[in-house]
Specification:
alpha/beta; ATP binding; transport; 34% helix; single chain; 7 helices; ABC_transpr_LolD-like; globular; six-stranded mixed sheet; four-stranded antiparallel sheet; 243 residues; ATP-binding; AAA+_ATPase
Amino acid sequence: MAGDSGAREGRPMVRVEDLRRSYGTGPAAVHALRGVSFEVARGELVALKGRSGSGKTTLLNLVGGLDVPDGGRIHVDGTDLADLGEEGLLALRRNRIGFVFQSFALVPILTAAENVGVPMRLRRADPAEREERVRLLLSMVGLADHAEQRPTELSGGQQQRVAIARALANRPALLLADEPTGQLDAETGRAMMELLRAVVRGEGVTALVATHDAQLLDLADRVLELNDGVITEPTAAVAAPTG
């Protein structure tokens, strides 16, 4: 096991090779991705830049195992997604990947604490462990005093903080965020990106964040630009930041 762990540490967290995905057939087909290749080093915060329709969401869905490519390969944390069946992909999403969505996707009838605890309930985590982890995460995102409030009682920025805490519940290796600041004002959006950067450093998570907000790109370790389904500014993978 120690040897396998060491081998994993030497690999990038994400490796995408010649990834292709189209929707429809014939002249009306939409080619969302046209041979995308890149790597994300462990501990990196990589921003995925591109206007609406450039393929960002499609790429995140493929890396997260929510969709299947037409061609190419995806490796996450040393695992080739093509080698996993439905149960394997479900386990990967539950245990190794955290998702943050633009729409927050919180359960409206649950409190902030209960929303954060949902992934751990699905994993059947020990209740005492779950409660302690929920308290820690809500404190980390600055919502310790809002644990019992429901989504409708929280601002948009607070709801996104709950969503980030929920994504971290099962200690994922990879965090995928799809336009997490899209419904927030500029000031709150920047605060969310700063929080994501702090989370990457504090929790040892790797993050791939899709955004079209140029003002937030300076908070990333590296930027990849998607344009009409191709990376137009490919950048070599860098070593994970230290300190």
